[in-house]
Amino acid sequence: MSYSELNLEDLYLQMQDDLYDGLKEEIPLQVREALERGQSPQEILDEGLVAGMDIVGVDFRDGILFVPEVLMAANAMKAGMEILRPLLTETGAQRIGKMVVGTVKGDIHDIGKNLVAMMMEGAGFEVINLGINCDADKFLAAIREHEPDILGMSALLTTTMPYMKVVVDTLGEEGIRDEIYVMVGGAPVTENFAREVGADAYGRDAAVSVEIAKSYMARKNSEASKQLA
Ligand code: B1M
Fold this sequence. Notes:
Elements: H1 8-20, H2 26-36, H3 41-61, H4 67-89, E1 97-103, H5 111-122, E2 125-129, H6 136-146, E3 150-154, H7 163-173, E4 181-185, H8 191-196, E5 201-203, H9 206-228
Parallel strand pairs: 1-2, 1-3, 3-4, 4-5
Bound molecules: CO-5-methoxybenzimidazolylcobamide.
């Protein structure tokens, strides 16, 4: 189908509908159409892909959709994100820091975490994306190997979010907690919860996470230059 005849509002509604129906061949066509009309990647994410996934989330919660359908919707969303990936990651921004990011143990949700990773890359961070179901040992090994400035953890389930504390505590036991800035995020995570698990910051969404990470790097660099002076 050609989407050029739809007005912008209908194009986004179609994108939401097709994401809901898991039509992963259609989503990239619609994303390209929106880009051709001058829409920014952020607008396409917010108005089309994330808005569609929000509807999926509500119907999943209410027992109208089940895991197989939600998985198809997730794959359709990923197909759209693949079109946006180069636009979000290749901005030519100067390297400003390094981040290790992963979804915690027991949790396989990765769409939001991948979005955070892409936007961090676009802002100039080198990102080591550990994937899903990461235990404390995996985070620890990656921190030792890559020596990042920031550790990002994602959790989408109320049953897996407490694992963030296990990771933070492990960093403490290993004596490296003070060497790394810990950010946590994911739908059930809150500012209070972030404090409770001993994280340094809560990233409400990908854009906010990027801003928090950038201001942390600015503080870190200015402290380092004060010490040199
Ligand atoms: Co899941 N699931 N799911 N699921 N799923 C939720 C999370 C749920 C809220 C749905 C619901 O009931 N309404 C519910 C959790 C309820 C709860 O814990 N209270 C739920 C459930 C119950 C489950 C299963 C247990 C279902 C079952 O098997 N019976 C199961 C668990 C599997 C497991 O992990 N062990 C399950 C499985 C799945 C799928 C595999 C089918 C699929 C995941 C596919 C994938 O990710 N590859 C899936 C999906 C897609 C969802 C919903 C519908 C959508 C999640 C999503 O991708 N959102 C979700 C409903 C919802 O969240 N409302 C749901 C879009 C994404 C862009 O947003 O991930 O929030 P989000 O990320 C945002 C911010 O949160 C933030 O920035 C992102 C971008 O702005 N952020 C960070 C995220 N991580 C960050 C890290 C940071 C900073 C910011 O670090 C610095």
